[in-house]
Amino acid sequence: MTSLPAIARRVEDVTATASIAARTLLSLDTNPVPGDWTHITKIDPEDEKQLPLLYPLYLQHTSAVEVGGSRDVTDQNTEETLDLVADRPVPAFQEPSGPTQVTDETRSKAEFLAIPEVLNGDVDALIGQLGAGIEHIQDDLAPEMIAEKLPISPGGAIEDRLSQFASAWMLREAVFEAYIIMNLDSAAARESNVTEDDLLDPGTAKQRALAAEQHLESELVYLEYSGTFGGEEAEDILEAVSDGLTWSRLWYGGGLDNRENAQRVLDAGADAVVVGNVFHEIADEEVDVCEQVVADLDPDASRDDVDAWIDSNVDLDAASATKYLSTIVDVSNPEGRAREYLETTILTWLAVQSVLEELDTDEPSSATEIRTAFREADLPGTTAVDAVLDAEGYLLDVLVDLAGPRYDVETDGLPVKHVSLEL
Ligand SMILES: CC(C)=CCC/C(C)=C/CC/C(C)=C/CC/C(C)=C/COP(=O)(O)OP(=O)(O)O
Ligand SMILES: O=P(O)(O)OC[C@@H](O)CO
Questions:
Q1: What residue spans define the domains of the chain?
Q2: Which residues line ligand 1 (CB under 6 A)?
Q3: How many A from CA of 109 to the centre of ligand 2?
Q4: Quick one: what percent of the chain has pLDDT higher than 90?
Q5: What is the 95 CA–ligand 1 centroid distance (Å)?
Q6: Thinking of the domain 34-279, which architecture would CATH place it in?
Q7: I need a surface site. Which of 44, 114, 199, 378 has the fewest CB within 10 A?
Q8: 39 φψ region: left (φ > 0), alpha (ψ -120 to 50), beta (else)
Q9: Could you identify the atom of ligand 2 that is nearest to the CA of residue 252?
Q10: In angstroms, rounded to a whole number, what is the distance separating the alpha carbons of residues 143 and 176?
Q11: ipTM exceeding cut-off 0.85 for this assembly
């Protein structure tokens, strides 16, 4: 009689054969990472990296948001960032740089978990951190999940098996990101101990990418120049790697801040570009612009006044908003869009100052009063953000949370400390 383990083995064989045939013989695209994603915005949860006030306007043009970073990232700031950006207005996924950054909260908010495995770093960056991560899932996350789902604790061996099952399931659902890190002067290289000797030529990069696709089953191969543009060297690697890959997506990230370079890496074979720093720089610039505009213009300035002010005070061509939008090749007029979003931000910020003046006199005692005052002011940003999110009043929520502490009023607690402007 056929034993149960033999039947299980046969089922595994059939499933594996079907999966390999689907990917190779039939060329079916079974990769869970959408192939039509061409632009990823990488948002770092660390406190120093901020979001522009009207961030949904900018994010409407990107394909997805990746939440992660390599310094000062915690479970808490990751949860907060996901709270702000997940599905506003595009899906967001989490890329942890350490095991404890993954919690039940982050898992439920993120579209999926993307786990880095570095193909040219030390053992810890390829497999060590992953082992620690699996232990964290099995010992901490899975038991929490089981306790939440089951009315009584099964205890002992059954609970151990359920934990193993849950952790294996979470890993199956995760996406693996095989990194090739090529900028030695980056936090990513330092964290993964990538040294001069580990830098790869195109041929070796292709071989490692083949191993990532066919052995590690990495859904993503990620050429990382974090902070600097890789130029011709990156193009050569992308050409070689894309020539080898059939199923994994190929992403390029590092130093992108203009259309030409974004197009170059796409033409060299990248399926998507990842853009980080320049997005956060929009928020930094916005703080200076808004401070100056409040000093220069009346709160009831018209759109024409603001337009003229931008012409005299902002070099739009060099603005981070233009640079960010220009990395999205589908955005046809990045500078025009940047002007539109900056104008809306300024007009909103000026009107917010008037509301504050009113509120300072009225001394509101509840979040509802603050919200009513902002709603009655008919802020241009509210309408613009509502249109993008297809929902009502999100910017009002943000503003109430920004203004709450000024009046010692308790609010819903959106983590607005990640937003650039303060009230
Ligand atoms: C399974 C679970 C629960 C967790 C996974 C834990 C793992 C495997 C973490 C990977 C740690 C690792 C190898 C990190 C280094 C690679 C990395 C994340 C680079 C990208 O970091 P950026 O923040 O983009 O780089 P910069 O800071 O240089 O821009
Ligand atoms: O911050 P930049 O240089 O855009 O790089 C993006 C990303 O590759 C970092 O992991």
A1: 34-279, 363-412
A2: 69-70, 96-99, 102, 115-116, 118, 125, 129-130, 133-134, 136-137, 179, 186-188, 191-192, 226-227
A3: 23
A4: 81
A5: 7
A6: Alpha-Beta Barrel (3.20)
A7: 378
A8: beta
A9: 8
A10: 23
A11: yes
